[in-house]
Amino acid sequence: MIYEALNENIDIAAQSLLNGEIIVYPTDTLYGFGVDATNEKAINKLNHLKKRIQPLSVIVSSYNMLDDLCFVDKNKIDLNKYYPGPYTLLFNKKNKLPNILTVNSKKIGIRIPKSDFAIKLVDTINKPIVTTSVNIHNEDSLNDIKKIKKKFPNLNIFSGIVNEDSKGSTIIDCTNDYETIVRQGDGF
Fold first, then answer.
1. Pair 29, 169: CB distance under 8 Å
2. What does the alpha-carbon distance between residue 30 and residue 133 come to, in Å, rounded to a whole number?
3. Distance between CA 51 and CA 95 in Å, rounded?
4. Is 53 in contact with 47 (CB distance < 8 Å)?
5. Total-model pTM
6. Exposed e or buried b for every residue in 65-102, given b needs 16+ CB within 10 A?
7. Cα-Cα-Cα-Cα dihedral sign, residues 7, 8, 11, 12
8. What are phi and psi of 93, to 5 degrees?
9. What are phi and psi of 32, to 5 degrees?
């Protein structure tokens, strides 16, 4: 079913995530697949749907949630330069989330998008949510609601405003003494 990404549909999206379902939701870049980042079964379902197992990034709603999940040296990085916005920052993770989420990597990608819907959704379930592009591995990302519904008819889809020409978020590795761009996306 397709819903508008409005406040009144946050509860529907939240309940879907808490029930272990995969949803499609708008971010400030692309539409994303989302699951509860603490639910290993849901993560496995998402990996099966995408037909691949690779590290997944998560959306958090605050610096407190960020600090709870990873090690951040705020003397080294100005978070306000990137958040909220079209950036995924890689940090060394704490062991608070299932290993399958990061495929046993010591790093985790964290987003705080400029997306009221995504942030309110995280706040509502009080857990981070997975964010990954809407596609099958090695296929183009889908950013059109009609095409998403046709390809994934059994998912709850929350439509909203996204960047139709998005290249995804810019990924920056913040685990060293200097920041390194891993993938150039919409940021900068």
1. yes
2. 7
3. 25
4. yes
5. 0.94
6. bbeebbebeeeebebeebbbbbbbbbbebeeebeebbb
7. negative
8. -90, 155
9. -125, 150
Q: Percentage of the chain surpassing pLDDT 90?
A: 90
Residue 104 structure tokens: 């046993």
For range 46-71, the mean pLDDT: 96
Cα–Cα distance measured from residue 43 to residue 101, given in angstroms and rounded to the nearest whole number: 7
Rounded to whole angstroms, the Cα distance separating 131 from 111 reads 8
Task: Evaluate the omega torsion of the peptide bond into residue 128 and state whether it is cis, within 30 degrees of 0.
Answer: no
Q: Which residue has the tokens 């062991």?
A: 95
Rounded CA-CA distance 105/120 in Å is: 28
Burial of residue 132, with CB atoms counted within 10 A of its CB: 0-12 exposed, 13-18 middle, 19 or more buried: buried
Q: What is the mean pLDDT of residues 155-161?
A: 94
Three-state DSSP state, 93: strand
For residue 91, give both structure tokens. 């940090």
**Band of the pLDDT at 150, cuts 50, 70, 90?**
very high
- The more confidently predicted of residues 17 and 165 is 17
Q: Which of 150, 142, 65, 163 is nearest to 108 (CA)?
A: 65
pLDDT tens digit sequence for 78-92:
999 999 999 999 999
Closest CA to 65 of 147, 127, 3, 8: 127
